[in-house]
Write a structure and sequence with these properties.
Blueprint lengths: L9 E7 L2 E6 L2 E6 L5 H15 L3 E6 L6 H6 L1 H9 L8 H6 L2 E9 L2 E2 L1 H8 L2 H6 L6 E8 L6 H15 L2 E2 L8 H4 L8 E3 L10 H26 L20
Parallel strand pairs: 3-4, 3-5, 5-7, 7-8, 7-9
Antiparallel strand pairs: 1-2, 5-6
Length: about 250
């Protein structure tokens, strides 16, 4: 589903030496895996936060891996899967399209869910092309218990982003609600206990929405700098003494 229009919009953003210029709306992709709906609820909140900042948002879940028969045997897994039947899967093109990307995953033994990890591994060609450099990226997660690996899951997910050359954006304590919503500065996180209905508390959703809004704002600034050529690496000038010898 598109959280906001799927077309590329332009908006007036100022002038340069008397000439008006326009800048396209910031593009945000929220890409996630959710087995029972809890991470899906976080993802929607992140997407809503970015939308509220005027961003063009794609909300995408990654493809399932286990056979449908296995999924059907697990009631909550199958229920959530059926809710997503008409929604598009995430594609590698979404990564290339976006200025900013939010990744969401449930914790799996303190690590990233296999479904999302497979998707990340498929981005190798974009990595080789340098197409993921300076993408602004942030992460969020959910676990059954408070110490079930939320921080380690986000840190593990971010390892991929470092290799991409992405700009990793933490949640930080940027809004007061973080203290009441799990207190995790790495990224929005939800402790489900045994709840698998996707009905998250208001504070957690508020924190996720704030993370999405922060992603949209920072991605907008980075995208503007990139388009202006301010992020292009320049060859370092060779330093030497006046007699031509290297110092």
């Amino acid at each position: 589903m598109e959280a906001v229009g799927s077309t590329a919009h332009l908006q007036e953003s100022g002038s340069d030496h008397g000439h008006a210029y326009v800048r396209r709306v910031t593009r945000i992709a929220v890409i996630y895996y959710s087995a029972t709906g809890n991470v899906h609820a976080l993802a929607r909140a992140v997407a809503n936060g970015a939308t509220e900042q005027g961003a063009d948002v794609r909300l995408r879940h990654v493809a399932e891996l286990p056979p449908e028969m296995v999924i059907s045997f697990k009631q909550h897994w199958g229920r959530h899967r059926s809710e997503l039947e008409d929604q598009p899967d995430a594609s590698i093109e979404d990564l290339e399209w976006a200025d900013g990307i939010a990744f969401g995953t449930p914790t799996r033994f303190g690590n990233v869910a296999a479904q999302l990890k497979v998707f990340l591994d498929l981005a190798g060609e974009l990595w080789e092309q340098g197409a993921l450099v300076d993408k602004v990226a942030t992460s969020f997660t959910s676990s059954q218990t408070e110490h079930g690996g939320q921080e380690s899951t986000i840190l593990a997910l971010n390892n991929t982003l470092y290799h991409w050359g992405a700009i990793v954006l933490p949640l930080g304590y940027t809004v007061h609600e973080v203290f009441n919503g799990g207190g995790n500065p790495y990224g929005a996180s939800y402790t489900s206990d045994h709840r698998v209905d996707g009905q998250l508390d208001v504070t957690t959703l508020m924190v996720a929405r704030a993370q999405g809004a922060r992603l949209a704002r920072v991605a907008a600034a980075i995208a503007s700098a990139r388009e202006a050529g301010l992020l292009t690496a320049k060859a370092a000038a060779k330093t030497g003494s006046s007699n031509g010898k290297e110092n």
